[in-house]
Amino acid sequence: MNTKTATQARHWQTDGDSNLSPGRAAWDRGRVSAETRARLDEDARYFLHQSLSTPCLGVIAKAEGIWIEDTDGRRYMDFHGNNVHHIGYGHPRLKAAIKAQLDDLPFAPRRFTDAPAIALAAKLAGISPGPLSKVLFATGGSDAIEIAIKLARAKTGRYKTVSFWDSFHGAGFAASSVGGEDTFRSGPIGPLMAGAEHVAPFACYRCPYGYDDVDGKPDLDVCSMTCAAYLGYVLEKEGDVAAVIAEPVRSIPYLPPPGFWQSVRRACDDLGVLLIFDEIPLGLGKTGRMFACEHSGVVPDILVLGKPLGGGVMPISAVVAGPELDIAGDWAFGHYTHEKNPVSCAAALTTIEIIEDEGLVENARAQGAHALARLEEMKSRHRLIGDVRGLGLLLGVELVADPETKAPAPEAADAVMYRCLDMGLNFKTTLGNVLTLTPPLIIARGDMDRALDILERAITEVEGGL
Ligand SMILES: Cc1ncc(COP(=O)(O)O)c(C=O)c1O
């Protein structure tokens, strides 16, 4: 493989499938009408190109409930949705709330607050775990991560962070620095934020420390949770770390070994390090609990929310911290133009109310458990499936060339993904070979089963060489 091809291969095996993969190159043939092709060409003409967006795959004309529809009339169940669509696209109650708020008050400039912003702050304080009760709002996850880092610096007087390789925390400079992905850190990007240290993450099926798993689970008697111990060791050796930043459940997905976060929390407490949990994609119910950290029994010092908070319509993110972090009243590290945008805040408040009133967290738990059981069954029928794992409606199917060697099968994953798209199911691949399914929390059993039938058909076809 020459260097350029090797770099491209690395880049399409990242946080999300990119537009550089073989399946993507073949997708256009016979599938895109002349009108859509013209729009795609226009998009590619005006947008700067980058591997995770432009050139694009299609043009979306409608998004409703669990469905997206393109300009050629193809409909897809959206099991990706960038994780913004917890309540489904275009929820009528959300649209009504946004319209009413637009009529009532469209914006509040700096130095003023407004009722929806206060109500959202109070709501987040009410539902967040433990003492987390002081907020700042921004428009995107990456910005919110950077606010959290600044808060940790302000509180501790230190600047270093420890985070996981292979993580994603956003595309800004600080967020890319704490992230652990090549696509966002390498090449022309240049020097990143000083002090952004990384450790290998928990990943029991492919333990970076070389321990064998038992059917995807850790053998704690053997590994003694080296991943947590090493993180503690790094914190101790560095001695001046401001914060550990991580997703409590990795979006890939990977679940932490039992006790992992308790161990890290203890190490943080012993060494005066803050714990920042990034729940931007998975908070607000995706994992079957309102917050993913509730599975771990650990309360972070700072919780970061985003994506679904705006109901899949408004861009809004939030940092939620304990009152002890309200220590920088004379600085301004989180004032953004749309910090207290009443329309975004009304959308976020209504989104949380919809999640609560419609029992969507419970639905995520129930449908997720059903899907996971079906995926386990599927694994017993397909050698291509090396591992399945998940929590709530975060589901992962890891494709391998051989279940014994666990050699990743990124080409097969790419082929399965595009075959599923052909049959009306949209999801993404992560790290090249993990089919990552994140349906909205409103998903019904029938649609879940239909989607899993499509997935199994695609896997069967790809295993059979199509
Ligand atoms: C775990 C995680 N953190 C942060 C972000 C960044 O959010 P945004 O794209 O809104 O900046 C993402 C986005 O995919 C994410 O998945």
Give structural notes:
- The chain has helices spanning 3-12, 22-27, 34-46, 92-104, 115-127, 141-156, 173-178, 182-185, 220-223, 226-238, 260-271, 342-357, 360-381, 410-422, 445-463, and strands at 60-64, 67-70, 75-78, 134-138, 160-164, 196-199, 213-214, 217-218, 241-246, 274-278, 302-305, 317-321, 385-391, 394-402, 407-408, 425-426, 428-430, 434-437.
- It is an alpha/beta fold and 466 residues long.
- The protein has 2 domains: 3-89 and 360-463, Alpha-Beta Complex (Aspartate Aminotransferase, domain 1), CATH 3.90.1150.10; 92-357, Aspartate Aminotransferase, domain 2, CATH 3.40.640.
- A hairpin with a 4-residue loop joins strand 14 and strand 15.
- Helix 10 (226-238) packs parallel to helix 11.
- The protein is globular, with a radius of gyration of 22 Å.
- The protein binds pyridoxal-5'-phosphate.
- Pyridoxal-5'-phosphate (PLP) binds next to helix 6.
Quote the distance from N terminus to C terminus. 26 Å
- Please give the CATH class of the largest domain: Alpha Beta
Number of helices: 15
Most strands sheet: 7 strands, mixed
Main sheet: which strands, in order across? 4-12-11-10-9-5-6
CATH fold type of the largest domain: Aspartate Aminotransferase, domain 2
What binds here, in terms of ligands, is: pyridoxal-5'-phosphate
Mean pLDDT across all amino acids: 94
Q: What is the CATH architecture descriptor of the largest domain?
A: 3-Layer(aba) Sandwich
Report the uncertain regions. Answer: 1-7
Note the overall shape: globular
- Percent in helix: 25-40%
**Structurally, how many domains make up the residues?**
2
Look at the helices and sheets and give the structural class.
alpha/beta
CATH superfamily of the largest domain: Type I PLP-dependent aspartate aminotransferase-like (Major domain)
